[in-house]
Design goal:
heterodimer; A: 3 helices; globular; B: alpha/beta; seven-stranded mixed beta sheet; 25% strand
């Protein structure tokens, strides 16, 4: 895991929102204020979720473990917390 | 036997079970079943199902051994399983149950917390408000709908052994009745074309309800004595590649978007795919760039096929020929010029031994009405047959949108949007986006309520059907005959998206 150590959780959340907006091509309209909203409630489908996770792997240099609980991917905040915890 | 009526499908499957008794038939990373185990389990579970008070049911499968055994056991018990789509929301499930007179549904216990699905953790609660879960031994959960008064009375053909769904235009998925002999013919045809043997290990990433899995990875493998490796973990590239290598897959089956995802691990594709002799993609067109990159990175061609829900797999291409390849043995294809279209179009008609029996009460629409006197079924696909006999698909004659292999009828989306009181009318189409196919909704309304309408769609549509873009128009441009001028709307879209996000179309 090699996320730049200097980045704090707010920066990662902002970055995740940007990535999600791009990956979903506008389908998911999200800002940092929505960070605690469940992604399915914002319109996230399983195909978009997978593309999102793969782009995070590529752009942040992480590799998702396959045994993470589904709740890890439930909100922007939970994903960011996991990434920071793995730093 | 557990039932007086013997299933053609089960009879053929059990013949294979006896022939290949000690071979591994089925794996999902957690369990492994030989053909002997498979037959024993289908009989045992089938005996249990035969006692249940129902003559049809919905099964919501996971990619698991339990789901597959339950599917076959329900056929064995003559409970006519309707094979549902795991991407359905609770509302979709209830609509289907009501439309086809189904009071009972079976859910794979793992279906509720599968992280690769829509992450909707409130499914069980929502269902409990409409009925009750009853205890059943094993991994399947049995749901019984409380209110039966809204269940439609629909007849099912006596030869029907199971029912699959395709996208419909009547407000709910279209239900197709299949005989066991159609399923066996489809499996034998595919197995012969793809040269399956008993040493095959078919790694399948499609869910069991999907044609891609159904046509390539289940019965065709069993009738050949090979093994099917179902995949339950999240569809993350590293996890998929680890499992492909671990099981020594000889055939790899996935949707086009999977190949795009896996290309993020280009450096190891060649090594991982060493044991794989056949790679199959279908259900949506594969971009030529992905095909080329894949070939370069893995050293393998991506094969594919042309199939339709009503007729089963029609052609097969191992990746070495043009277009969609050649007709599977026993299938016939012809091109018919349709002069009712302006300009005329060349439509594909097919005749296969794996045809569905008929739709179930689909608002008067029937399969037989689309068949000619020679038994050819006229599809909505456009195409041509080359001199060498290979088939090339060139387009569709209708508006079906294909999102990562999920076929979506835009009418379904328009119908829901039009129910919103602030919307006068809507037109839904697809456009090519930067990353994927986009759903674009043109809205005729006096208001520009993008956020409200988006929230409304989130509440009322399956997530895969939520439009990516909304384009608001005060009044739809119309021709003198009252038809919406789509060309004008498309121009508006182009201006709109270029202003907003620079998406090119």
């Amino acid at each position: 895991m090699n996320i730049a150590v200097c980045r704090d959780i707010e920066q990662i959340e902002e970055e995740l929102c940007e990535i999600l907006k791009n990956v979903s091509e506008g389908k998911i309209s999200i800002t940092v204020e929505d960070k605690n909203k469940a992604l399915p409630d914002l319109g996230m489908d399983s195909v978009t979720l997978l593309s999102f996770l793969v782009v995070i792997e590529d752009s942040m240099g992480v590799e998702w473990s396959t045994d993470l609980p589904p709740t890890t991917f439930n909100t922007i905040s939970s994903i960011a917390s996991y990434l920071v915890g793995e730093k | 036997m557990v039932n007086e009526k013997s299933s053609v499908l089960i009879v053929e499957l059990f013949k294979a079970c006896e022939k290949y008794t000690d071979n591994v038939a089925l794996m999902d990373g957690f369990s492994s079943f030989t053909y002997r185990d498979l037959k024993f389990s289908i009989n045992e579970v089938g005996r249990m199902y035969s006692e249940l008070p129902m003559n049809r049911c919905l099964i919501m499968p996971g990619s698991t051994v339990d789901s597959l055994i339950s599917f076959y056991a329900l056929i064995q018990a003559n409970k006519i399983p309707f094979l549902g789509d795991p991407s359905w929301q609770v509302d979709d499930i209830i609509v289907v149950m009501q439309a086809y007179g189904i009071s009972d549904a079976f859910f794979d216990a793992k279906w509720f917390d599968d992280p690769s699905r829509d992450l909707n953790i409130s499914y069980r609660e929502n269902l409990c408000a409409l009925g009750e879960f009853r205890t059943l031994p094993g991994e399947m959960e049995w749901f019984h709908l409380a209110n039966h008064s809204s269940l439609a009375e629909v007849n099912i053909d006596s030869k029907t052994e199971f029912v699959r769904f395709s996208s419909g235009s009547t407000g709910h998925p279209r239900a197709l009745q299949f005989s066991g002999s159609a399923a066996v013919a489809a499996a034998q045809g595919w197995s012969a074309s793809a040269c399956y043997t008993e040493s095959e290990i078919v790694f399948c990433l499609a869910t069991l309800n999907n044609g891609l899995a159904f046509n390539t990875s289940i019965l065709p493998v069993f009738l050949s004595g090979g093994a099917t490796r179902l995949y339950r973990a999240p569809l993350l590239p590293s996890a998929i590649l680890t499992e492909v290598k671990r099981c020594g897959a000889t055939v790899f089956v996935g949707f086009p978007f999977i190949f795009k995802l896996l290309l993020s691990k280009k450096a190891i594709l060649k090594e991982v795919f060493q044991s794989v002799r056949l790679v199959v993609s279908s259900a949506a067109p594969l971009e030529e760039k992905i095909n080329e990159d894949w070939r370069e990175a893995s050293g393998k061609y991506i094969g594919h096929y042309y199939g339709i829900a009503e007729a089963g797999p029609v052609t097969f291409n191992d990746g070495s020929s043009r277009g969609s390849g050649f007709a599977i043995k026993g299938n016939f294809i012809k091109i018919t010029r349709d002069y009712t279209q302006d300009p005329p179009v060349d439509r594909i008609s097919v005749k296969t031994p794996s045809m569905a029996i008929e739709y179930i009460s689909d608002g008067g629409k029937t399969i037989s009405s689309s068949m000619d006197d020679k038994g050819y079924y006229q599809t909505q696909d456009l195409g041509r047959v080359e001199r060498d006999g290979s088939v090339v698909i060139t387009g569709r004659n209708d508006k079906v949108i294909n999102i990562a292999g999920v076929k979506i009828d835009p009418n379904d989306i328009e119908r829901v949007i039009n129910r919103n009181p602030l919307v006068k009318d809507s037109v839904v189409e697809s456009r090519k986006g930067n990353n994927c196919e986009l759903i674009v909704a043109f809205i005729e309304s006096d208001y520009e309520l993008e956020n409200d309408l988006r929230d409304y769609c989130i509440d009322n549509l399956p997530r895969i059907k939520i439009p990516h873009r909304f384009v608001f128009v005060k009044k739809f441009p119309k021709s003198s005959t009252g038809k919406v001028r789509l060309a004008n709307l498309r121009k508006l879209y182009k201006q709109n998206v270029n202003d907003e996000s620079g998406v090119t179309i």
